[in-house]
Amino acid sequence: MGEAPVFFLDDLKKEFPNGVDLKSNGCETATIVVGNKTYLIGGNSTESALSIGVQIFDQSSGEWVYPTVLGTVPKSGKGFSAVLLNEDRILVLKKGSTPDDFAWVLEVDTQYVRQQKKILGTEVVAWSKGVRGNVKKPVVISGPSGVGKGTLISMLMKEFPSMFGFSVSHTTRALRGVEKDGVHYHFTEKSVMEKEIKDGKFLEFASVHGNLYGTSVEAVEVVADDGKRCILDIDVQGARSVRASSLEAIFIFVCPPSMEELEKRLRARGTETEEQVEKRLSNAKAEIEQGQSSGVFDHTLYNDDLEECYKSLKKILGLDESTDAATETVTKWVDLPADHSISKIDQKIIISCRTPELEKGSKDSIVLDASSLKGGAPGRTRGLEVYTMNPFLDGLNGINELS
Ligand SMILES: Nc1ncnc2c1ncn2[C@@H]1O[C@H](COP(=O)(O)OP(=O)(O)OP(=O)(O)O)[C@@H](O)[C@H]1O
Ligand SMILES: Nc1nc2c(ncn2[C@@H]2O[C@H](COP(=O)(O)O)[C@@H](O)[C@H]2O)c(=O)[nH]1
């Protein structure tokens, strides 16, 4: 709770309509009313003057609230516009920004935000970057230690380097000889990771074989930013948490042909001490049971013959012989003009340039179609579509999809 600049309060009492811009110390802000709360987006961020701040004026208590802000906070730019979508999220458009950075979503009452409010006991908002189109669902791969998850993932990434990206987990376990920090894992201190978990930076985390492991929201986001399909190698507890989150994914459980073969592989890998091997083997029994009965997994793979198992994995992921290994997911955006106005019709946001050329009819408006949004915090909001429309032409004849 806190005090906000008096003139904001006075301005807000005038009951501005949603999306209207106010100016504070040269800093542009947008206000959006959701129920009895007014979200003031922009102005001073409590974290940094370089990122977009959020404050909430609660009309029922007459108090200003500084919410816990989750997700990657967009950097402030040349100002922005905001529009309410579905009463639970606000679309924030950054003026004059680069094509891959102009659409952001501030979640104010989504399932994820409500869940986090309960956990953290504070007011919460969550940022999620808007991504055009639908990158395919992330893939969660689980299974007991030594079954061959890492081997299968390496094969996939080698064959389809531009299609898949690996979610680099955090762990408190010690680095193995060949591993690189930031590539195989982010190796971290327990106290640091616990603090980051508390701050809501993790999509999931679990204690596995005596160490803490977790997938940060950022680990998944950087893969989506690259236009790639994310692969997560996590244990069954983690898979269950992801299943309960808003991240829509495909869940695959990998089973060994027998416990004897699992032990053989784990020992042959030679990366664990005898004590650790014993621990991993005894945990494997419970994991296999849970993996086959929990209802978390969409598919089970038996990794007996590696090549056969890899073929089955590719089939599940829709990668047959004819799939072009070099296929890239290209997400093209548009340059958002700095000087624009926005209006909303159903789930379509019309962005019109405030330029003389437009008045003469020589420029197009941009249409953002938010009717098929998917995903959201933690992670990206996918499914935004972009069109251009010449306002001086009638009907759909004037709409061109950007490709
Ligand atoms: N089908 C297979 N047949 C024989 N050996 C295999 C097979 N699949 C993987 N292996 C070998 O088993 C060992 C363990 O595999 P890998 O490291 O990929 O397991 P993992 O499931 O990723 O384990 P962890 O969960 O501990 O990271 C490796 O030495 C690998 O080469
Ligand atoms: N819940 C999570 N489990 C994870 C994550 N990253 C890895 N793992 C699982 O841990 C074990 C052991 O891995 P190792 O590298 O020490 O052999 C393995 O089953 C992984 O799947 C994570 O981020 N979250």
UniProtKB/TrEMBL annotation:
What PROSITE patterns does its record include?
Answer: GUANYLATE_KINASE_1, GUANYLATE_KINASE_2
The enzyme's first-digit EC class, named in words, is: transferase
Q: Name one GO molecular function term.
A: ATP binding
* GO cellular component terms, semicolon-separated: cytosol
Keyword Chloroplast appears in the UniProt entry: no
Provide the E.C. number(s) assigned to this enzyme: 2.7.4.8
Q: Which Pfam families match?
A: Guanylate_kin
**Which reactions appear under catalytic activity for this entry?**
GMP + ATP = GDP + ADP
Q: Where is the Guanylate kinase-like domain?
A: 136-318
Keywords, A to Z?
A: ATP-binding, Kinase, Nucleotide-binding, Transferase
Sequence similarity: Belongs to the guanylate kinase family.
PANTHER family recorded for this chain? Answer: GUANYLATE KINASE, GUANYLATE KINASE-RELATED
What's this protein's name?
A: Guanylate kinase 1
The uppermost taxa in this organism's lineage are: Eukaryota, Viridiplantae, Streptophyta, Embryophyta, Tracheophyta
